[in-house]
Design brief:
The protein has 810 residues and is mainly alpha-helical. 74% of the residues lie in helices and 2% in strands. Residues 411-769 form the Exocyst complex subunit EXOC6/Sec15 C-terminal domain.
Length: 810
């Protein structure tokens, strides 16, 4: 059996030819044949396939029978080895147990050695790492100390070393990462702290700018005073004119050093302070360095300039009541000067924080604002003393900033506008002075009791009259007390105007021109206006007007002395080409002409007042045989009035002719006005009827007027010149009194006519008034032949007069 099995098992089966067994040498063709449409092809395929499967099963069985014996032998040998393996396992286990027991102590000691070696290695590593970390920690500790002590610039340098040198060495440690994360935050804190310090500095400098400016302006004023003193001494040959000033000491052409302190000993010993002495600029420097290190300098510069521009605008805003006191202007100027002194220091002490272009822009903006503010506020000022102090402040202000390199030409141009304002305030002040002088004047000649009184008057006013000087005391000077007072006040005005011209860096010729122009304004506008207003006042009578004429005459003569006075002050010869002349002559002439005109006007007004008192009975049958009372009073008034004109100045031929002309003109004007008023009374349209008796009474009044004219109330008239003022009335009255109509009508238009001055229209108007009266008073005249003839004559004359009037009109 075994033999069979082994023979079977060792028989090697033949290899199976799958392609032939299945006949699949052409699988594609075979598959195609399966699915062809041949009948029972699928069934035949399945039968063949089953046969092929059975064939394979037999071959597999043969293969298993062939290898079965070898498998049985291998199992038998494996069972034998199992026993030996169990023995070996027991021996190994026993050996291992004995080995473990023997090496237990060695193992314990070995573990201790290993732990020791590990600790040594860790310690060495730790020391090595600590040596790398300790400098980092030390630098960080140093950074904290610097921050606490506010040494921010050094702290930034420490941070830079930490970032670039120390932290990269130990960047793997967590604490280093924390440090690295904290450094940007610390930088921001430093920026914020430094910016806060800068803000505190800006706030502080805004509060202390006035102190800085006050110090700078005081030094500039001392320097200007010193230079002025040196210039005066140089003109005397003692010193050489200084060229420039440096650090409070003046250098001259010869190289000598002269102390720039001219005040008291205390002022001389006072230390000259600068902006750096008064202000701590360290916050600015520190903040600038910090932002530079942080690479954010542009941000800092932009912020600083923006804030300073805002502060500049605040500084340039004046107080509402600044114009009321000089202290308001001084504080305003001090703040501005302090601001720009600080900016000038920053410009020179830092590199690029502010530039010259930036400061120039600020200054140009400030200068425009300053000029606008000063124009506005100075216009509110009506006190010349305050305007003068303002001018001095502007000069010191300009000199101070000019020393720091800022252009100030526009400020000096502004001073010319302020000068005009100053002159206006002076003119207003002197207008009040002149008005008060005129109100207090008694308008009578100045009485002089003694020679001392005479010398006192002459010392105040340049009066010279040989005839009056020969007279014994007491005597009277022709002008009233207002004349020397006016002359003195004009000189005081010149002195006041001169004060403004000081320190304006102008030549003597320009100053002379300024004085003459301002004096001309005083004479031609202020004094002239006061005189005109005085002349127009109702309470000024004829006597006062005569005295005003006398006063203006003497003031006119004194104008040349005012010219000499200005020349002595300015040392400018009056023969200079561009020298302005004083216009006082025309001023006083105009005032005198106005006074003369007012005399004529007041005379005429007085005549009108007397005329209004006339009370004629126009229907009277016969006259009273004497002149009217109102007219006699009027004539007496005129006689007494014209006696006043004997007081007019006549100490020389010019004044004598002038006084005679005024008196003659006044007298002629009064007579003409009286004649015209009487003529208007006759021809008044409201007067409807006039009797012959009224004509006769009116004729008596005119006769008195003619007698007054012929009595020569004012000397100087030639022949019957004055009587000619009444010639129109005389010829008209003669025509009606004589009833000489035939002669009038026959000779009308002839140069030799007896009634040449009688106008046909005038005669017609008066004749019609008499015609109506004849009709009313002679009811039965038509029954009397003479009356009828007279009435016919009147009607005939009226017709002829009307034809003459119509002929004239055509």
């Amino acid at each position: 059996m075994n033999g069979d099995v082994s023979s079977v098992c060792h028989e090697v089966p033949e290899p199976i030819n799958w392609e032939s067994a299945y006949n699949i040498s052409s699988p594609v063709l075979y598959q195609r044949s399966i699915y062809d449409d041949q009948p029972n092809a699928h069934k035949r395929f399945m039968e063949k396939l089953d046969a092929r499967i059975r064939n394979h099963d037999r071959e597999i069985e043969k293969m298993c029978n062939f290898h079965h014996q070898g498998f049985v032998d291998a199992i038998t040998e494996l069972l034998k080895v199992r026993i030996d393996a169990e023995k070996l396992m027991g021996q190994v286990t026993d050996t291992n147990r004995r080995l473990q027991e023997a090496g237990r102590e060695v193992t314990a000691q070995t573990e201790e050695v290993i732990c020791c070696r590990i600790q040594q290695r860790n310690m060495a590593t730790t020391v090595e790492k600590l040596q790398l970390c300790i400098p980092v920690l030390e630098m960080y500790s140093k950074l904290k100390e610097q921050l606490e002590s506010k040494r921010y610039y050094a702290a930034l340098k420490t941070m830079e070393q930490l970032e670039k040198v120390y932290i990269p060495r130990v960047s793997q440690y967590r604490f280093c990462q924390i440090m690295a994360e904290n450094l940007p935050r610390l930088r921001e804190e430093i920026k914020e702290i430094s910016m806060s310090d800068l803000k505190d500095f800006l706030e502080s400098i805004r509060k202390h700018s006035d102190k800085v400016g006050e110090t700078a302006m005081r030094q500039a004023q001392q320097h200007r005073t010193f230079n002025s003193a040196i210039a005066k001494q140089a003109s005397m040959g003692h010193y050489t004119k200084p060229v420039y000033s440096l650090n409070g000491r003046t250098h001259t052409h010869n190289g000598l050093m002269i102390d720039d302190n001219t005040g008291d000993e205390d002022e001389a010993d006072e230390e000259i302070l600068t902006a750096q002495d008064l202000v701590d600029f360290s916050p600015v420097y520190r903040c600038l360095h910090i932002y530079t290190v942080l690479g954010d300098r542009e941000t800092f510069e932009s912020y600083y300039r923006k804030q300073r521009k805002k502060q500049a605008r605040l500084v340039l805003q004046p107080q509402a009541n600044m114009h009321e006191t000089v202290e308001g202007y001084r504080k305003y100027f001090n703040q501005i000067v302090g601001f720009f002194v600080v900016e000038d220091h920053i410009l020179n002490a830092t590199q690029g924080l502010v530039t010259r272009a930036f400061t120039d822009e600020l200054w140009n903006m400030a200068l425009s604002k300053i000029i606008a503010v000063l124009r506005t506020h100075s216009s509110y000022c009506d006190d010349p003393d305050l305007v003068l102090e303002l001018k001095n402040l502007i000069v010191i202000f300009a000199d101070t900033l000019q020393d720091y390199g800022f252009p100030v030409n526009r400020l000096f141009d502004l001073l010319f506008e302020v000068r005009d304002q100053y002159n206006e305030t002076l003119l207003k002040k002197w207008a009040l002075v002149f008005r008060e002088i005129f109100e207090l004047d008694n308008y009578s000649p100045i009485p002089v009791e003694t020679e001392d009184e005479y010398k006192l008057v002459v010392s105040r006013f340049p009066f010279h009259d040989a005839e009056i000087e020969k007279q014994d005391f007491p005597k009277k000077l022709p002008m009233s007390q207002s004349v020397p007072q006016i002359y003195t006040q004009v000189k005081e005005f010149i002195y006041a105007s001169l004060k403004f011209s000081e320190s304006l860096h102008r030549s003597s010729t320009e100053i002379d021109d300024m004085l003459r122009k301002s004096t001309n304004l005083l004479l031609t506008r202020t004094l002239s206006s006061c005189l005109q207003n005085l002349i127009k006042k109702p309470h000024i009578g004829l006597t006062e007007l005569v005295q005003i004429i006398i006063n203006t005459t003497h003031l006119e003569q004194a104008c040349r002395y005012l010219e000499e006075f200005i020349t002595n002050i300015t040392n400018v010869s009056p023969e200079t080409v561009h020298t302005t002349r004083l216009y006082g002559l025309s001023t006083f002439k105009d005032a005198r002409h106005a006074a003369e005109g007012e005399i004529y006007t007041k005379l005429n007004q007085k005549i009108d007042e007397f005329i209004q008192l006339a009370d004629y009975e126009w229907g009277m049958a016969e006259s009273d045989g004497r002149a009217s009372g109102y007219l006699m009073d009027l004539i007496n008034f005129l006689r007494s009035t014209f006696q006043v004109f004997t007081h007019l100045p006549n100490n020389n031929n010019d004044h004598a002719s002038m006084s005679g002309k005024v008196a003659q003109t006044a007298c002629m004007s009064a007579c003409k006005h009286l004649s015209t008023s009487l003529m208007q009374m006759l021809l008044d349209t409201e007067l409807k009827q006039i009797s012959m008796g009224a004509i006769q009474q009116f004729n008596l009044d005119v006769i008195q007027c003619e007698l007054f004219a012929s009595s020569e109330p004012v000397p100087g008239f030639q022949g019957d010149t004055l009587q000619l003022a009444f010639i129109d009335l005389r010829q008209l009255l003669d025509l009606f009194m004589v009833w000489d109509w035939s002669t009038y009508l026959a000779d009308y238009g002839q140069p030799t006519s007896k009634y040449l001055r009688v106008n046909p229209a005038t005669a017609l108007a008066l004749l019609e008034k008499m015609k109506d009266t004849s009709k009313k008073n002679n009811i039965f005249s038509q029954f009397r032949k003479n009356d009828r003839d007279k009435q016919k004559l009147i009607e005939t004359v009226v017709k002829q007069l009307r034809s003459l009037v119509n002929g004239m009109s055509s």
